[in-house]
Write a structure and sequence with these properties.
This protein is of the alpha/beta class. The chain has a domain of about 60 residues. About 40% of the residues lie in helices and about 20% in strands. The chain is built from 8 helices and 9 strands. A 6-stranded mixed sheet has the order 5-6-7-3-8-9, with helices on both faces. The relative contact order is 0.17. The structure holds adenosine-5'-diphosphate and magnesium ion.
């Protein structure tokens, strides 16, 4: 199901919103703390949203609720049935090759061998790993492993791609490369992306919209109206950075 089709059959709401979180609260069972408090956000079709904030502020919890891996205690969530998720570690199965890792969820969904192979080839090519498709995860660099993780999430063709600090274990040069890959894929596929990041710079490089969280609450949403590719030296880049720092320190 494409993002656009999904929007057509939902009635009574803004047709271009793909994800709508309304007044979400999350208290984990057995916990006294509120992990996420009165959190609301809308993400439009094809938009790139970054969630940032200090460790423990509830970013992953929000992402897991969008993924359907956690339920909110209160509040409502509208989202497509199918979402793709990319994890920090890549979460590849070590005994499977690159192409088998990408194909795995497709066979799990019951697709035919032919269809699964087509989709696997398409997305392995998209992340430029065609030459590596018979390699095992242990034979790949950190960046390559993350590209397999992205290909696997894309292969089920979900309208929404969710990423939880996907590049935080990579060196700075590889991280820059991964940003270019992700922006290229985003442009080619038109996916709606929600990504958790611990880096303000990464959020400004990638996102249309940055949601700043602190202690479970949404502090501010910033629209990053800068042309891509974005450079950290640009005056406007620095202005956004200052704005985020101010918000996080207030
Ligand atoms: P972030 O991703 O911003 O670092 P998390 O969403 O992981 O933050 O965590 C938010 C809060 O919820 C933290 O206080 C964390 O300890 C708590 N938390 C996260 N996952 C669980 C869980 N499965 N059970 C209980 N508490 C949790
Ligand atoms: Mg987290």
């Amino acid at each position: 199901m494409s993002g656009k089709n999904y929007c057509i059959w939902r009635k009574g709401i803004n047709l271009t919103d793909v994800i709508i979180l309304k007044n979400i609260n999350k208290v984990y069972p057995g916990s006294k703390e509120t992990a996420v408090s009165d959190f609301s956000v809308e993400v439009k079709d094809g938009e790139f949203l970054c969630l940032i904030g200090p460790s423990g502020c509830g970013k992953s919890t929000v992402l897991k609720m969008i993924a359907g891996l956690e339920k909110p205690t209160n509040g409502s969530i509208e989202k497509p049935l199918s979402v793709g998720m990319v994890f920090q570690s890549g979460a590849l199965l070590p005994w499977l090759t690159v192409e088998e890792n990408v194909a795995f969820p497709l066979y799990a969904k019951g697709l035919s061998k032919e269809k699964a192979e087509d989709l696997t080839n398409k997305y392995v090519q998209m992340v430029n790993l065609g030459e590596y498709k018979l390699k095992y995860p242990r034979e790949l660099s950190g960046g390559q492993k993350q590209r397999v993780g992205i290909a696997r999430a894309l292969a089920v063709e979900p309208p929404v791609l969710l990423l939880d600090e996907p590049f935080s274990a990579l060196d700075p040069i590889t991280t820059d490369e991964m940003h270019s890959y992700l922006l290229k894929i985003w442009k080619e596929t038109g996916k709606t992306i929600v990504m958790v990041s611990h880096s303000m710079e990464e959020a400004i490089i990638l996102a249309d919209k940055i949601a700043i969280m602190k202690e479970g609450k949404l502090k501010k949403i910033i629209d990053v109206e800068l042309k891509r590719p974005r450079q950290e030296e640009e005056k406007n880049f620095i202005t956004f950075l200052e704005e985020i720092k101010l918000e996080l320190n207030s």
